[in-house]
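Propose amino acids for all 453 sites.
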């Protein structure tokens, strides 16, 4: 009996929810907590800064610490995913990043010099970045295995939009907890949620071929539609089921890093993430220090752009797949929403032209909506990555993209301290919307890369 026949034994086609949608719901939920963890300091930052005595520049470095390690760890994270598969690597990643998040709650419980407190949180944020590094490449790997090409745009848009939903959901909660009980309890809550999700992932997740809930009809829909169902096939299984992996040697690196389409993805993803990191680091601080809002108000105000970013992210993915179904080329279906969205994102610069807090929040909301629509980098990566090194390529893209998480918080920290306002910082962030257009131009036609034999 073949692997699929044995896996499909006893399954019924039924009218129940397809398993791939439940898989997507699970990685969406994990990604929501993932982004809540990495953005937790943006909401609690003012309170942490006040209690522990951080300067503005020190806070900027602490904000950037996550991305230093996140970028460096992308390539080894991708190698681990290609070697061991998403199920095991994701589980360990989730457990470790949750433990580090929980540890932040203990910093400063005993009277601690400022430099030691800054260093401790900086190191913990470094570890958080390292341990979270496989998460998005793993999401892309799961989407590549579980979804046919015609559904992959919306699938990647949904898990990518979790970053906005995380802020919309958790910003008010974290603001309220910080206001009522103190910032430490935010990290305790995130620790409990993370460990619960790790247990669920290990108990329920499997490959499309081996998952007991997948019907034969669903398996056929995925595999015939371009889903790489054996991407995470176990090495101990049927040799024909194991996805061929490219050797990571000089020839492989040369083919990956000489691909024009990938360089276009790297540039555009860097630009998209520059806006992301403004919103998950300095935006709440801007509302407190630049606009005079209270911390409790910030928790709710920060949710507005996030909700629109969430809606924009879903719209971009669904619009892209709809264009594919209507006969547009893959290149047009991915690039048209991306270009439109990033043009909208540049509207953040208009905040410098008004003193109205209500109008500023509206412009930020429009910019974040546009950034959501234009965030199709993960869909494009799953469309063009060679199957033999899909996670390595995804990790490379994520490394380039998240370099923005190093640059953006530090640049903003220095400019705010030097100028005493956020004006220059907002122009800097808005310019990345135009940089994304350069990346889309460099990208050229979107099609699957195949290594030379």
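Proposal:
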């Amino acid at each position: 009996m073949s692997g699929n026949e044995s896996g499909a034994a006893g399954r019924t086609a039924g009218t129940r929810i397809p398993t791939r949608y439940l898989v997507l719901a699970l990685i969406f939920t994990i990604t929501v907590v993932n982004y809540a963890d990495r953005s937790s300091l943006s909401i609690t930052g003012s309170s942490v800064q006040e209690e522990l005595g951080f300067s503005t520049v020190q806070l900027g470095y602490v904000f950037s610490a996550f991305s230093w390690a996140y970028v460096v760890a992308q390539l080894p994270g991708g190698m681990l995913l290609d070697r061991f598969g998403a199920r095991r690597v994701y589980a360990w990643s989730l457990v470790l990043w949750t433990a580090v998040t929980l540890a932040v709650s203990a910093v400063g419980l005993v009277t601690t010099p400022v430099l030691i407190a800054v260093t401790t949180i900086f190191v913990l944020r470094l570890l958080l970045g390292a341990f979270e590094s496989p998460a998005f490449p793993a999401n892309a790997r799961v989407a590549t295995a579980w979804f046919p090409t015609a559904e992959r745009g919306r699938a990647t848009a949904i898990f990518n939009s979790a970053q906005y939903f995380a802020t919309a959901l958790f910003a008010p909660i974290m603001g309220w907890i910080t206001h009522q009980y103190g910032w430490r309890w935010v990290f305790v809550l995130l620790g409990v949620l993370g460990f619960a999700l790790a247990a669920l992932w290990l108990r329920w997740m499997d490959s499309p071929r081996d998952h007991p809930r997948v019907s034969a009809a669903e398996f056929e829909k995925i595999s015939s539609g371009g889903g790489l169902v054996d991407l995470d096939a176990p090495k101990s299984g049927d040799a024909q089921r194991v996805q061929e992996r490219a050797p990571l040697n000089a020839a492989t690196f040369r083919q990956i890093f000489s691909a024009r389409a990938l360089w276009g993805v790297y540039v555009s993803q860097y630009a998209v993430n520059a806006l992301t990191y403004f919103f998950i680091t300095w935006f709440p601080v801007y509302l407190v220090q630049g606009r005079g809002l209270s911390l409790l108000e910030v928790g709710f105000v920060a949710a507005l752009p996030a909700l629109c970013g969430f809606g924009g992210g879903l719209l971009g993915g669904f619009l892209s797949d709809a264009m594919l179904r209507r006969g547009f080329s893959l290149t047009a279906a991915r690039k048209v929403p991306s270009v439109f969205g990033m043009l909208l994102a540049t509207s953040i610069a208009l905040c410098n032209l008004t003193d109205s807090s209500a109008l500023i929040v509206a412009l930020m909301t429009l910019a974040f909506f546009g950034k959501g629509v234009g965030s199709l980098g993960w869909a494009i990566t799953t469309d063009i990555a060679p199957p033999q090194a899909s996670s390595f390529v995804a990790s490379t893209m994520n490394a380039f993209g998240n370099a923005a998480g190093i640059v953006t918080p530090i640049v903003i920290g220095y400019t705010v301290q030097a100028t005493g306002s956020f004006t220059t910082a907002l122009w800097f962030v808005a310019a990345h919307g135009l940089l994304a257009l350069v990346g889309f131009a460099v990208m050229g036609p979107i099609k699957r890369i195949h290594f030379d034999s």
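The domain at 18-234+242-443 is CATH 1.20.1250.20 (Growth Hormone; Chain: A;). Residues 174 and 186 are 6 Å apart (CA to CA).
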